[in-house]
Write a sequence for this structure.
């Protein structure tokens, strides 16, 4: 790896908050902040101590979520958030078509490679910009909460025309009491103990995995909770001759559990995931095996906004839960092949072998 390649690229980020003003104009007593950030003459009867005057049925009042308002005529609180982020990227020794729109160490080109010989590259985009909608509705079983959050790191846009980068779902879930259903961060991951990074890709090893899931959370005390979930499985079976997902079958969900500790001094997280790998080519070659992963993370708060943390991961078949990891499981022939034959071929049976990382 050359020094120029190791230098990677210079990332200059300019961020601005959109959709929700962080510092709206001040309001006078008894007025609410309009969700668009302008002072309105909408009155909140809760600010009138001792007043018997009720708000009109269609009046907009303050909601139960931070920065929210209630839909007129309902008890549903709605909060709209988001931001615009512009990224200016200068890549040393490789075009962005190779490195991508976010920095990954694994994409640094090798010395003498064609990509390295193509020289420097400039790229501007706003794909990390986000929009989020939160709601909360009181019920006899507790608050029914929902969240939808998107960014634009879906399919890359065509720069020659409108550069319409694809919108991507990050979160889409509903929760009530201890139950959550929908897509959000995997239970195996923990946002409290993932190290901060300027670049969207994040630190090596840590990974933000968004998965469809059904999760149950038990509160074990003021600072300790236990999560248990069944989550969407996604296998990356490979053969010695290359990627081969033709025979991949998802027989089981991923089973995940986590202990989360949060206190004034910091946080700690211990999680495990159990995975099933299944292969069936439809011609008699089939096999199943299990894999696992363990994660330990924590951080301690220092002076100001600084904190000191760590994350450790290991597993057999951990694969996609570890950024930059190799394949999760290899498909091999279950019987000996003639000398010089391919390591995996139709009709030779199948044997799955998980990969330790």
């Amino acid at each position: 790896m050359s020094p120029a390649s190791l230098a990677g690229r210079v990332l200059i980020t300019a961020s601005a908050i959109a959709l929700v003003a962080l510092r709206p104009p001040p309001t006078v007593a008894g007025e609410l902040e309009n969700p668009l950030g302008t002072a309105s003459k909408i009155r909140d009867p809760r600010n009138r101590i001792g007043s018997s005057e009720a708000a009109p049925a269609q009046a907009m009042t303050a909601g139960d979520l931070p920065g929210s308002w209630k839909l007129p005529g309902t008890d549903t609180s709605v909060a709209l958030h988001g931001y615009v982020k512009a990224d200016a990227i200068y890549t040393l020794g490789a075009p962005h078509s190779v490195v991508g729109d976010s920095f990954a160490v694994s994409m640094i080109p090798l010395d003498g490679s064609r990509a390295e010989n193509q020289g420097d590259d400039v790229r501007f985009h706003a794909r990390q910009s986000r929009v989020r909608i939160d709601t909360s509705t009181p019920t006899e079983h507790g608050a029914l909460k929902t969240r939808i959050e998107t960014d634009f790191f879906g399919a890359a846009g065509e720069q020659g025309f409108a550069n319409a980068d694809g919108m991507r779902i990050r979160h889409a879930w509903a929760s009530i009491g201890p139950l959550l259903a929908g897509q959000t961060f995997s239970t195996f991951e923990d946002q409290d103990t993932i190290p901060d990074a300027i670049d969207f890709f994040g630190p090596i090893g840590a990974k933000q995995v968004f998965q469809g899931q059904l999760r149950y959370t038990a509160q074990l005390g003021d600072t300790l909770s236990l999560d248990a979930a069944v989550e969407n499985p996604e296998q990356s079976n490979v053969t010695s001759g290359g990627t081969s997902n033709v025979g991949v079958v998802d027989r089981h969900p991923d089973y995940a559990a986590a202990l989360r500790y949060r206190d004034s001094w910091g946080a700690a997280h211990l999680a495990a995931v159990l995975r099933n790998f299944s292969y069936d080519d439809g011609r008699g070659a089939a096999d199943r095996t299990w894999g696992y992963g363990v994660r330990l993370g924590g951080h301690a708060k220092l002076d100001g906004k600084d904190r000191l943390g760590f994350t450790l991961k290991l597993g057999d078949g951990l694969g996609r839960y570890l950024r930059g990891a190799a394949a999760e499981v290899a498909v091999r022939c279950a019987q000996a092949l003639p000398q010089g034959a391919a390591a995996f071929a139709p009709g030779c049976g199948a044997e799955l072998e998980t990969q330790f990382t």
Remarks:
- The chain is about 5% helix and 45% strand.
- Residues 1-52 have pLDDT under 50 and may be disordered.
